[in-house]
Amino acid sequence: MQSLVVFCFFLATTFAESSGIMRDMSSMEIVREMLVGWNLGNTLDSWDDKGNGDSGIEIETSWGNPKTTKEMFDTVKARGFKTIRIPVTWRGHFGNSPDYIIDSEWLDRVEEVVNYALDGKTYVIINSHHDEWVTLTEATKTEVADKISRIWTQIAERFKDYSDYLLFETLNEPRLYGEPEEWMGGTASARSILNEYNHAIVSAIRTTGGNNALRHILIPTHAAASYAETQDALVIPENDTRIIVSQHIYFPYYFTMDTSPQTSTDQWGSAADKEAMIGEFDRLEEKFISKGIPVVIGEWGSK
Predict the structure, then answer these.
(1) Among candidates 124, 119, 128, which has minimal Cα distance to 166?
(2) What whole-number distance in Å separates Cα of residue 17 and Cα of residue 35?
């Protein structure tokens, strides 16, 4: 199960209407309002990973979750969650080059689900999730940059009149798939190519105009990892002041993700545990927060 934690320092008490308003708020101020959030996982991000021929909007339920309803989000919000992240996989839902046109039925369904969640006080994040054709290699980067820019141009056009309660996240855990460095921070080349992709997507979104000229956009490090090398390598596109860093922090690993009976633990809370966790947050503060760059922890969980 995935959860979402927003990393922030202050609380805010006022909300604007969600319908088309872009408030005069910095990304840091937006993140301060987002507080704790929830992921709609294994739903709009489902894809035919088993080769069963699942396709179209019916794929929403192919990983075992029910079809999303407004009542689901109302229940989540009633529990106190202020942000809903809606992972969306676009693979299998767009056509061939050169335009890569997104299936209208799928885009309509994504918008319908977004509208379920937006209510003028709940933030919503949509992204590109499980789109593993976004490879971080020199041989593919030109094609991938063009393709992902065209995909995001269409997404941005559809949502360009939405308020700043809707945020975009360029990519989910982009990484060197199947390589030894996949979950270990990547390589210098892969991290550099990711900067190019983030730049291309942000540019595509901004170019659509409307409210997207001021849209708050999340960009990830390699695999959204919080390693020092991934954080140090991340470049904010054009020093854009409405960029938020996306991190996934399954920490400590032996408590949150490890399932081995030899090494995993269900115990947490010692002085050493807390010191290590504070150290993780201190690095985020030093690298980003202290420089006015907000951070959202888009995924966290425990087994």
Answers:
(1) 124
(2) 18
Backbone dihedral angles phi then psi of residue 168, each to the nearest 5 degrees? -105, 145
Q: Give pTM, 2 decimals.
A: 0.93
Q: Which two tokens stand for residue 183?
A: 């979950």
Distance CA 185, CA 255 (A): 21
In this structure, what CATH number is given to the domain that contains residue 80? Answer: 3.20.20.80
Whole-number Å distance between alpha carbons of 119 and 217: 20
Structure tokens at 246: 């996306």
Q: Is pLDDT at 11 greater than 60 in this prediction?
A: no
Range of 295's domain? Answer: 3-300
Question: Of these residues, 33, 112, 173, 181, which one is catalytic?
Answer: 173
CA nearest to 87, candidates 66, 51, 105, 60: 60
105 is catalytic: no
Q: Long-range pairs for 92-99 at CB < 8 Å and ≥24 separation?
A: 92/47, 92/48, 92/55, 92/59, 94/151, 97/147, 98/150, 99/150
Is residue 211 pLDDT above 50, yes or no? yes
Residues 106/57, Cβ–Cβ less than 8 Å: yes
* Integer Rg of the chain from CA: 19
Contact by Cβ (8 Å): 299, 39: yes
- Cα separation, 298 vs 144, in Å, equals 24
Tell me the one-letter amino acid at 113: V
**Those residues with Cβ within 8 angstroms of residue 183's Cβ, 6 or more apart along the chain or in another chain:** 175, 223, 225
Using an 8 Å Cβ cutoff, are 282 and 289 in contact?
A: no
Confidence of residue 229 (pLDDT cuts 50, 70, 90): very high
* Count of structural domains, the chain: 1
d(CA 164, CA 174): 25
- Active-site annotation holds for 173: yes
Three-class secondary structure of residue 137 per DSSP: coil
Which one of the listed residues 33, 60, 169, 299 is annotated catalytic?
Answer: 299
What's the pLDDT score for residue 2? 52
> Cis omega before residue 294 (within 30°)?
no
